[in-house]
Amino acid sequence: MSLIDDAVAANATIANEYDPALGAPPAPKIAIVTCADPRLSGIARMLGLADADVDMIRNVGTVIDDDSIRSLIISTRVLGTREIMIINHNGCGMTTFTDGELEERLRDETGMSPIAPARFYSFTDPEQNTREQMQKTRSHPWIAAEVSVRGFIFDVDTGRVSEVQPLETTVSGQSN
Ligand code: ZN
Question: I need a labelling partner for 108 at 20 to 30 A (CA). Which of 5, 95, 134, 151 fits?
Fold first, then answer.
């Protein structure tokens, strides 16, 4: 029996306690982009946010790529979220290798050089990486200017988030 079989069997019982009201159309207020790392699975609870208020967008490494931009456009333009939190974390697996190292390993293991994915988005500095993801989000023409875009690092050792300041801009009257 696989874990999937176990999960499907468990669902048959757990669903008896399901509240059908949870199936109402969603009206989230905030979009969170974060890592697929299991340690981030409780992030809404750690922020005191109700599951229903959060449009959770996850991928390995908290990357703002075409697909997360696609989700953020739907989130803000269709679902109506007004704030975007980009939450990276310390100890991310994407800091443990470079794209080149992983590509070389995969070529060795498979004997093939596929053309996609073009990048794995490995990184070294979570704060710098978060700034780049904030900038990619903020600069997209279909993410409205009035939607707040803020970046954070979740410390997996303490459970605390700390804000990452955006890249310096030269807008007059603003210090960052
Ligand atoms: Zn991660």
Answer: 95
